[in-house]
Amino acid sequence: MNDVLDPIDRRILRELQTDATLAIADLAERVGLSQTPCWKRVKRLTDSGVIERRVALLDREKLDLSLVVFVSIRTARHDEAWLTGFAKGASALPEVVEFYRMSGETDYLLKVVVRDIGAYDRFYKRLIATAELGDVSSSFAMEQIKFTTALPL
Asked: What pairing do the DSSP bridges indicate for beta strands 108-114 and 96-101?
């Protein structure tokens, strides 16, 4: 799909990444189209999977979820059954907002959002019950300097 994205498609995507609640009329005006062609492009981008879904971004602080923890996991197990079980168990924990299999010294990296240290401790106990883990190391974010969900188009 990337090969067929023209400059107007990219403008549409940039606008929707900024505000997915834009009415088609407003979006069309911003990208220089009439409503029907704009709607058809948005539909094509959605049908092709370029636009996966539209969501609301919430303010963590206002929801009392101010602690962000990056959890690095190393394991001696690398078989498919272990990975499937661990991925299923860790993904089911609602505090895990991002989950990556890594190259290098860390095998898995989780981004976890919780209320406070006590909530993290309760999360940690549930996490280590999901699978046999080697080393679990937690780094607590001191300050968020940049946050965006917008991809560079």
From this structure: antiparallel
pLDDT tens-digit series, residues 101-148: 999 999 999 999 999 999 999 999 999 999 999 999 999 999 999 999
Q: What residue has token string 């406070």?
A: 116
Cα(77)–Cα(83) distance, rounded to whole angstroms?
A: 8
- Residue with the two structure tokens 């834009």: 22
Q: Measure the CA–CA gap between 102 and 109, rounded to whole angstroms.
A: 7
The DSSP secondary structure of 88-119, one letter per residue, reads: HHHHT-TTEEEEEE-SSS-SEEEEEEESSHHH
| CA-wise closest residue to 125 among 89, 88, 76 | 89
Question: Where are the alpha helices (H) located in 1-153, listed in sequence order?
Answer: 7-18, 24-31, 35-47, 80-91, 117-128
The amino acid at 126: R
Global pTM?
0.89
- Tokens at 124, concatenated: 């940690």
Q: Do β-strands 67-74 and 135-140 pair in parallel, antiparallel, or remain unpaired?
A: antiparallel
